[in-house]
Write a structure and sequence with these properties.
The chain is 53% helix and 13% strand. The protein has 797 residues and is α+β, with helices and mostly antiparallel strands. The protein folds into 3 domains: 242 residues, no CATH class; 295 residues, no CATH class; 165 residues. Strand 11 and strand 12 form a beta hairpin. Helix 2 runs antiparallel to helix 5. The chain starts with 7 loop residues before the first helix and ends with a helix. It comes from Paenibacillus naphthalenovorans. It holds the Pfam family Transglut_core. This is Transglutaminase. Keywords: Membrane, Transmembrane, Transmembrane helix.
């Protein structure tokens, strides 16, 4: 017999606790889907600089939980706002409860970032602001997603978005996301099955409310609802789908391979190539970069111009190379590091015992202090050798940063702090530096040493496309040597004696060219990237494990303190001191640096001056706003080119149409169809024309607004600089009329070295503000940097 529909009010009242529990269960499954968006951030830590997703995961749980409570809107968003502000403050205050002073600084930073945003300079935003916006955006999205789940009973659209995101990560970053796809699919099917059961119950309530006898639910469906058959069926369907997917991978196992986009790019160029396209491509390939420390080393050889902008100031007892990171995978065009696993730094971690290498005369422990000047380097630590201990870290706001926030990338030895942490301003480290490489001759006398399997697999890798003549040259240089050390010295000496140094007489390596082969046999001139890459490739060709390392040379000596034998050097390291070199692995001592570039001295030797030209290419391009405008201009040019091509095509098509219309035998419907097609083409051309014209007007209007805001901010900064200069003279004495800022700073008496460095930093900022190019991205002085320099000077008193 027909099932009598329940009373809606009574049903809702009786099932209130059960309904809340069901909502909580559905929200829990939804959270499992949301977490799939966070897991890749951790696996791509070298790109995202996110070493821990725990704070974000906890935030997701909190946001979903408060939405499940169905509180009033103002209460709900009050809780969310307080939580987001609190977790942001906790993260960027070194995972500690922030003080009132920190909150005041945070408010000022938000205000300045708002001004930067109006100007379009989004790249200048503080990390705390970015974290705040990231979590706020997710708070809105989670609310919308939970509304779809709990109210509209829909989740498959979000499953599709998640699958596309995981596929994107796998295709572009070569990370196996199949387990994540299985988890995502299983959770989505289970969740949708539970949501479908709720839909059936809602339909019954609606039918009862309408009083319609025709809308009653069949008895079979009611039986399924009253029992556990519906969720059990959904669970069985989910298990079956996952089992089929897993079985498919077992039947056809394949290793994860990097997707080759060259064929698609080549087909696109062949289909849409034009003279303008070819000219633009040639101009990009011939573009000259600047020296400096960058992150992209996938294509080497670009001609460079020296960049004198400061990177950092360091105090060290020995003049050492400053290691940034090593890369092991040679592609033929450049270097990558395929493994991005990050491990948390621990004080005196296992395997980093400073006492064991100290017994060897080759290593010397040193303590070094680094003060960062380039904002692009304020999340990475540079060391003079193998890092063994971090003594302290200090943020730009003057707050200490816990050492447990330091992370190390395996194999590349890149040391960094998470991007969510406040920028580094100063840090002190202990590291083991090479003392004298000649001491190795007595240690490294093994003719045929045994290497660990992971060393051979990673550091003997060469591409299959490497020309055979490179291997023949390596055998000719080092084939007569007996030990790996002798082979390394022979290749180092050969490169320094047979090739010349030049920043300009080079070009970026082309597709299907090998960077080492081109340098060794055709170009025969280049800078440090060419020499270091060639040495690593030649060493691997004769069976010697080697890796490519980049960082900085020692820098310019500003001052020498202390007595003979216990000197402390204060050095200025600039972007034109960026450098790359080779390191060779020996089982008895580890990694040993070699310097094949003729413009520099031996790696790790004392007294080596930094070569002003030995540098690695930096990432080109200005701020986000400038790159966006450049992209819009390129897009408009492409649109105009398309418009011109369509105009030519339209003229040809119109002539053909007129000929067809005059041809007897064509029906009226055929002529009408041709007319509609012609009208569609004309409308498309008109829309393209209107869009490009409107975009050009918006671009010119945005330029005017940007200029006005920039002028206002520059005037405010100059006034602030004048106030600081007056306050400086009141504290340290008046300056003579003919005295420059640097002469004034050098003539003041300082009680400590820290006070002297802080005074020099403030005068450098004031000098840059008044006399440097305000539009140059490397000489930009902001209110934040001025305030931070003045605060550091006050703290040093």
């Amino acid at each position: 017999m027909p099932y009598p529909a329940p009373d809606p009010a009574a049903a809702r009242q009786a099932s209130a606790p059960a309904s809340w529990a069901a909502d909580a269960a559905l929200s829990g499954l939804m959270l499992l889907l949301l977490l799939e968006w966070l897991y890749p951030l951790r696996r791509l830590a070298d790109i995202t600089e996110v070493t821990s997703i725990a704070p974000f995961a906890v935030t997701f749980v909190f946001l979903a939980a408060v939405d499940t409570l169905r509180l009033p809107g103002w209460v709900l968003w009050l809780f969310k706002t307080l939580w987001i502000l609190g977790i942001t403050a906790w993260l960027h205050n070194g995972q500690a409860v922030p003080s009132l002073e920190w909150w005041a600084d945070f408010g000022r930073e938000l205000w300045m970032d708002a001004a930067e945003g109006l100007e379009g300079n989004l790249a200048a935003w503080e990390p705390a602001t970015r974290t705040l916006l990231f979590m706020t955006g997710w708070a809105f999205f989670i609310s919308v997603l939970q509304t779809f789940v709990l109210e509209r009973r829909q989740i498959l659209w979000f499953w599709g978005m998640t699958i596309l995101f995981l596929a994107f990560v796998q295709l572009f970053f070569t990370i196996d996301m199949f387990p994540a796809v299985l988890r995502c699919t299983g959770v989505s099917l289970l969740l949708q099955g539970l949501l479908q059961q709720g839909r059936w119950y809602d339909w019954r309530l609606e039918a009862a409310a309408d009083g319609s006898s025709k809308a009653r639910v069949p008895e079979a469906r009611d039986a399924a609802l009253k029992s556990s058959a519906a969720p059990l069926a959904g669970l069985l369907l989910t298990a079956a789908c996952m089992a089929v997917g897993w079985l498919g991978t077992l039947l056809h196992p394949q290793e994860m391979r990097e997707l080759d986009w060259s064929r698609y790019i080549r087909e696109f160029e062949e289909r849409f190539h034009s003279e303008a396209w070819n000219q633009r491509h040639a101009a990009v390939m011939a573009n000259t970069g600047r020296t400096g420390y960058g992150s992209d080393d996938t294509r080497l050889g670009q001609p460079l111009q020296p960049d004198q902008s400061p990177a950092f100031i360091a105090v060290t007892p020995r003049l050492t190379y400053w290691r940034g990171e090593a890369k092991s995978y040679y592609t033929g065009q450049g270097w990558t590091q395929p493994d991005s696993l990050m491990v948390q730094y621990l004080a005196d971690p296992p395997g980093w015992d400073p006492d064991a290498p100290a017994e060897n005369a080759y290593y010397v422990p040193v303590r070094q202090t680094i003060r960062i000047q380039d904002e692009g380097l304020n999340h990475q630590l540079f060391a003079g050798g193998e890092l063994i201990r971090v003594q302290f870290l200090q943020s730009a706001g003057g707050q200490p940063i816990p050492v447990n926030l330091v992370w190390r990338q395996l194999w590349s030895e890149r040391i960094m702090i998470p991007v969510m942490t406040d920028p580094l301003a100063e840090y002190e480290i202990e590291s083991l530096v090479p003392a004298d490489r000649t001491a190795l001759r007595a240690l490294l006398n093994e003719v045929d040493p045994s290497y660990p399997p992971e060393i051979e697999e990673r550091f003997l890798q060469l591409p299959d496309s490497l020309p055979e003549r490179v291997k023949q040259l390596a055998a000719g240089i080092a084939g007569g040597e007996s030990s790996p050390y002798a082979k390394a010295e022979a290749i180092e000496r050969y490169l320094r004696e047979h090739y010349t140094y030049s920043l300009h007489e080079t070009r970026a390596v082309q597709e299907k060219e090998d960077a080492a082969d081109r340098f060794l046999f055709e170009q025969k001139t280049g800078y440090c990237d060419h020499f270091s890459t060639a040495m690593v490739v030649l060493l691997r060709s004769v069976g010697v494990p080697a890796r490519w390392v980049k960082g900085f040379t020692p820098g310019e000596v500003l001052a020498v303190d202390g007595e003979a034998g216990s000197e402390r050097y204060t050095v200025q390291v600039r972007q034109n001191h960026a450098h790359s070199w080779a390191e060779v692995y020996f089982p008895s001592v580890g990694w040993v640096p070699f310097e094949p570039t003729p413009a520099s001295g031996g790696a790790g030797s004392e007294g080596t001056a930094a070569s002003p030209a030995a540098a690695a290419p930096s990432e080109s391009g200005g701020g986000v706003w400038e790159r966006t405008l450049h992209g819009v201009d390129s897009l408009l040019s492409a649109a105009r080119a398309v418009y011109g091509g369509l105009s030519t095509a339209f003229n040809a098509v119109w002539a053909s149409i007129r000929m067809l219309l005059s041809t007897p035998g064509i029906s009226l419907w055929g002529k009408l169809s041709l007319g509609i097609a012609a009208a569609g083409i004309a409308a498309l051309m008109l829309l393209i024309h209107m869009w490009t014209k409107k975009a050009g007007t918006l671009a010119s209007s945005s330029d005017s607004i940007s200029i006005a805001v920039h002028s206002w901010r520059r005037a405010a900064l100059l006034r602030l600089g004048e106030r600081m200069w007056r306050r400086l003279q009141r504290s340290y004495g008046r300056a003579l009329p003919s005295m420059t800022l640097r002469e004034y700073a050098s003539s003041r008496r300082c009680r400590t070295e820290t006070q002297r460095i802080a005074l020099l930093r403030l005068t450098e900022q004031l000098e840059t503000l008044h006399y440097a190019d305000p539009d140059h991205r490397d000489t930009v002085v902001t209110r934040h940097t001025l305030a931070e320099a003045w605060r550091r000077l006050k703290q040093s008193l």
